[in-house]
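Render this sequence as a predicted structure.
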Amino acid sequence: MPLDDRAIAISATFTAEAIEPGLAFWVKEQGLDYQIRFAGYNQLFQELLDPSGLFARNRGGFNVALVRFEDWLRAGCPDGLEEHARRLVEAVRSAAARFSAPLILAICPSAPEHRAVMEGPLRLLREEVAAMPAVHLITASEVLALYPVDEVHDRHADELGHVPYTPLFFVALATAVMRRIHAIVSPPFKLIALDCDDTLWAGICGEDGPQNVVLDEPRKALQEFMAERRRAGMLLALCSKNNEEDVAETFQAHPEMPLRLEDFVSRRINWDAKSANLASLADELELGLDSFILVDDNPKECTEAQLGVPEVLALPLPARAGDIPEFLRHVWAFDRTRITEEDRLRPELYAQRAARARAERTAPSLEGFLASLELEVAIAPLESGQVARVAQLTQRTNQMNASGVRRTEAEIQALGEAECLTVQVKDRFGSYGLTGAMIFRAKGAALVVDTFLLSCRALGRGVEHRMVAHLGEIARERGLERLEIPFVASPRNRPAALFLESIGKTDADGVFRLAAEEAASVRYRVGPVAQAFLPVLGFEGTSTNQTNTGKNARATIDYLRIATELRQPAAILERIRATSRRTAPRPPSSDLPRTPLERELAEIWAGLLNLPSVGIHDNFFEFGGHSLLAVQLLSNVRQVYGVDLSLEVVYSGEFTVAELAKAVELKEIEQGGADYQDLLQELEGLSDEEVRALLAEEQDAS
């Protein structure tokens, strides 16, 4: 496999290949191009530690570790489960530091009788993994809370081939894993625009009266859901056709509402088209429309918004109010992988930004405004708790981003010889948070800057000049001759070009080069370049006039369909089978079932092979069967007929429906006890003529 392979690489403590159909379905559903690959059986620790293994070679995809604590008990685990968990933590920490692909660590369900002893190892993993930004933990309880399955465990398949779960649970697990991958790779939505009547509450405040609208349980759940999204850093806005006074009075009349009017960063409450109001909100907040979600009870309003501003994700609520909470839980667009401190502060940062804007409008000059800010800039080496934020900045920052290099948390953590500095800014209005990053390394006589970026919330205030000066000082201290900042033009990083042109000249290769002394002396001066920044400044690298880089990444995802049609494992499994139905390598034999048992087995057989039909003498393996499906088939037989068949039945000869039916009948006779055995012995003692006579008598009697 090449070093830059884009794969979903899976290693598990059990036989996990049954997860592949679910993963393949969601890869196609999301328009992704990952290959699905499996490590050897029960090679998890080896994969986490092997510098040349499947995980190590997977540079452009995701590594997935599936762990069932119960398997450690099966292997003996002489040192105890918690000690084994500590070893796993160390192996995961090693992999996260060395491998570039993010690692998804999924803790899978253990059998009910083992759950009590699993609490300690799980708690240990939770605590330790929380400090590893490149590792994403999924627990069994999280999977089953989102995708409940009645029958999780398949004990017979576990005994036969160490396949511990039912096909439905493997679908649930695959969906949870792919949902996490989606949250990692997709640029996050930033603002939720909410309708009022029959969305935030039941009733119409302008007709029923503000006092008489009802906060029923579904709408209360909706408000709680949105409040949680706000705490996770998403902005809330009102976009509703109402009289503004009625809406304000409704909030005032219902203090029991989880959301308050001050929770909304902006409001468009009028009788204009929602598409126009959404565009107005985007202009005011300097956010891309493709970072907006509209939630409205009226499908017509959603359609109008979608036609007018197609970048917006418009979500009509279910017609039945009781379905609203479950619907919202399955809108993948609301998911977040890891919430940074800057995310939590985002609503407050917008309030501070508004205060700065007011101060700027009243300042006598730009120089006076900048001086009044009392700006403080702290540049320091990257700390472990900042990795997630720096990765987030590389993904979101577009305007002041010289190279445009995007990095995952795993890639930030595994920089190798490169160094990373972070930039934190505050002024008299409050903290901007961690707003900038520089990644660089010494190369020959130069300090070469791989990444030079600054969030637009701090742009145009001289912070970028201090960043260059700091790099110049490092180059000078290390005895290097010059500072090199490569520039790669994009549709959105014109501000970076303007800034770099203001401090130096680019060579033909697109690299800005400054002598170390010259770079260390860079200072900010208000002038035409600084003035030119102001009209294009956005927040977190967005602009209403340009399309967010994440739009294409999300363009093929039908969030509404997923939340309505593909939120239950049974529905997903049915869809998987429908979309992957195969044609047989050759026409099925014309040998039709002769008995009810053969007919039932042929149906089970065809279902597992995902074929329309099979003949009773068709070979299982010639028609696409393999060992995993054989294990599932024998498990199905046990569930339906109550007979335990070994894998010898599969491999001892021609494995056909007819042969399987004979094996089932013989096992039923064997399990029937002494009466059947006596009958067999009696029949074996009869001559052919006596048997025919006995059968004739039975036929006459019937």
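Summary. Residues 341-362 form the longest helix (22 residues). The chain has a mean pLDDT of 85.
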